[in-house]
Records
---
Amino acid sequence: MRTIALLAGLLPVLASAAQAAPLTSVSITPWRGDARGAHTIAHDDYCSPGVSGIEKNALPILEARGLKAAVGVIGKECKPADWARLKELIAKGYEPFNHTLSHSGELEAGTLAAVKGWDAKREILDAHALMLEKTGYRFSFIGYPFDLASPETRAMVKQQPDYLGARAAKHLYDGSMAGLNTDEGDPYFVKWDVYWTDGKWSLYKPGAAGSILIQHAEAAINSGSWTFRTMHGVADGSWEAVPLAEYTAYADYLKQQADAGKLWIATPTEVIRYRETRRYCSVKLDSKGIQFDTSATDCKRYAIPVTLAITAASAPVLQQGSKKLAVKAAGDKRWLVEADPLAGPVLVQ
Ligand SMILES: [Zn+2]
């Protein structure tokens, strides 16, 4: 009993010793969890009968590894069971994105000739309204069919309040739509790499199983960027379908890198929100702890919780509102903590 009483008496002393170490710097890490890079898994043409392997093969493989993907929805192709399934996927943290109403496209892939009867409002805005009506979900990202779109169509999307980003699309081929995205890139021109079995139009060449897919994820880690992987089906009859062994090797690699804290696997809107929060909601130290500057309109528009990297001689005890924040040691007097810019100052206890 005496020992317990003694220890109890010591506790406030220990707590105040921790309190004594001031924070010496704070910043928002480029990617969540202080990962070296970010990566998005995306499957186009969802609801089209040709890509049955997304549901049959890809999603169970991802699910088993706790990975979330984005699916490009062709609105007109969705049946009642697809809408119900999309609702489930949304609840699990997957992100459906607008891949237009009919996928007729604005420009022919290859020739770049205008597609007869294209109507941007019908293809994009009606697809948006249909998704909202059937699932209650508002798309916030778009991938144009064949990644081709006129400047007018792209400008129309940018004016829609729900759209926070778009996959890079052009009205001419100039080779710059594929690539890596920096931590300050344009959210309406998110570069990608499309899976191509023999690597013909990919940034990479095939090698060991999963090679083309893995190289694009690895590029994010090596260059500190965000890479976006576009695929269609998996082991089905779809356009350039990914073989099962390739996909499994890719998913294993992603899980391994995510578990090691090197790669942040996230859906497009989550990465865009994170990146814009970092850009528009600045952080600084003050005498009580950490203050977010949320005065910018774009801070309020994009804000999501972000990872703060703090330096302090010892582990800080931090609180935001009534919530105690979990502090993770990152070595060399660095500490990581997740905080929400819209939840008020982070106070040192
Ligand atoms: Zn497509």
---
Amino acid sequence: MSPYQNKKVLLASMHQKELAIQEPFEEIVGCRLEVIDNFNTDQFGTFSGEVERVLTAYETLKQKAIVAAEQYNYDYVISSEGAFGPHPNYLLANSDTEMLLFYDRVNDYFISDYEISMETNLADYEFDQPNHDYSKFLDKVMFPSHALILKAENIVIAKGIKDRATLDQLVAENIHKYGKLKLETDMRAMNNPSRMKVISLLANKLAKRVISHCKSCDTPGFGITSLSGYLLCELCGLPTKIKKYREHKCIKCDYLEKEVIDLSKQFADPKYCDYCNP
Ligand SMILES: [Zn+2]
Ligand SMILES: [Zn+2]
């Protein structure tokens, strides 16, 4: 049975992320999720560039969880964090990196996981003409199912814009005043269904990890931490960039399990070999 069965867990997050996180945690972990309406996670930085982010994503996650646990006196807290930008492996594509952390204050466990997805509408668009037609941009970023932010230089004029009439009116009111306006995708979860979907995937993954125990010391949170090893090139036998193992690790002891990523592949295709295909 899950050690967190029926435990009260605080979701230290804004922007209705419970829509993606509550169900997997309640169903898989068996805990009860509680959401604090006014927990201001913006103090740790926001996605529209208003507060400079000083901590790394993982440190921010931990800080959010620790602060929330103390502030609201919970033993268990879930915190979340998202970052948007060029994909780490495919630099020409944008990506959404979501991180979730489960904090067990009683045992001082931090169990985290992440998900990187290219399913993101992250984009911006500048224009300086009063009657400029930005319809194509709106289609591309899936407006109005996905909301927009209107900015002038670094001033936020409006966030969470979800209908065309409001957008057009705001543009008309501000284009002469500022000369140049910028539309940005609103990445806050409740305004961005693509992002909500990634958070939901991740919440399922983390929930499963929380109930996965180390075979050696029984600590929860056992799971994949990294990839290791290299497949050798089928042609020349040299190591390629293709990883061979997934490493599952304990968050507390040194216990480690290596799992072959793809059992059907003993060697790598020479196209991934720096020697055969430089
Ligand atoms: Zn080779
Ligand atoms: Zn262990």
---
Amino acid sequence: MAETFPVQRTCPFAPPPAYKGWRDQAPLVKAETGRGEVWLVTRHAEAQQVLSGSGFSTDPRTPGHPNALDTANMTPEEIAAAREFGVGFFIDYDPPEHTRYRRLLIPEFTVRRVREMRPDIQRIADELIDDMVAKGDEAELVEAYGLALPSLVICRLLGVPYADHDFFQSRTRTIVDASADEGTRRAASFEIRSYLDDLIARVEAAPKDDLLGRLATSGRLTHEEMTGAAFLLLVAGHETTANMIPLSAYTLLRHPDQLAALRANPDAWPAAVEELLRYHSIADFVAFDRVAVEDQELGGRLIRKGEGVYVLGASANRDERAFERPDEFDIERGARHHVAFGYGVHQCLGQNLARAELEIALRTLFDRLPDLRVIVPEEELEPKYGNGVFGLTRMPVAW
Ligand code: HEM
């Protein structure tokens, strides 16, 4: 009998409890999602196999895709608008269409490029903490720091003028606000897309030597494609990092010995960030929706063309076959083979930037506010699944 999916986390620091049972049972488990049946991929080796293989498509237009556009109740105009909105959103494209974008953007996110961004990220982190401290000795960390930092980093990356930061931040916040209704979020998405449309028109008229300027001068993307790609950078790089910052801060507060080790040896931060990414695995399954494009064997099963698959990233990252004592948080474990950024052709384009943001955000937070503490009981921390990415709604802190 098929399992029921999705299932929710019951604790902010662990995947949904059902994952372990499914992982013990088999590398692939059949589940009913309410929109049809899918295969759930529960183990690390098979997760890598699906994500790296050419036998699966990520494109929601491919027949059988678990997140195909639900056109049953849509007018032809709405379908056309949704398709147009998807132009340039290359996380949904397969090679070779996908490769065209990836080749253009990889140079923008290299380790060297990200190293050049570090002073800016540091300044943003310091200014946000200055603001928090100026307002008193308490704050709500998700809003004041978690969401604000990646939003301002993306403003810098896309060259959003300072005067537009408030507009940009408020709309991006609505897009990722799990409590806002679908219509409000869609309206905010259209506003941001139309803002990016204007911004890119200005860039095309007078390109500078920055990310969008270089894309414009390459002549390889149309105006609509560039707008879609910029919109993807915004949504992919915002809520993910935003959710990781408060969750990670809380995890380190719950492991004071490991936090003390990081304070004593700041060189250990990069390894700690990898373990935080593995441990939380916030982009759990929606990021990893695929459909088989040919009949193939996987984990001892025959997967037929047109069958949908969800790779359970949070299960793969707690797989006993890949990580010893997987439920323990251990900054010394060397967790770099986690799949929190995915694997294969779609592996997170912004991973070097995300690592730098997390390291700088967390180190600065604990350096500047050495007495940081959470001021509500753990059971009052409300989880959220905005856009399928896990996080906390609020995290009230004092220092
Ligand atoms: C902790 C933070 C982050 C996490 C956990 C994360 C996670 C992921 C995952 C799991 C994927 C793969 C999806 C798939 O296989 O279909 C992905 C793709 C992507 N990420 Fe991230 N991400 C983070 C931060 C960022 C940042 C900061 C940016 C850029 C500003 C970014 C940009 C992208 C883009 C553009 C893709 C699509 C890549 C492609 O399809 O080729 N991400 N991310």
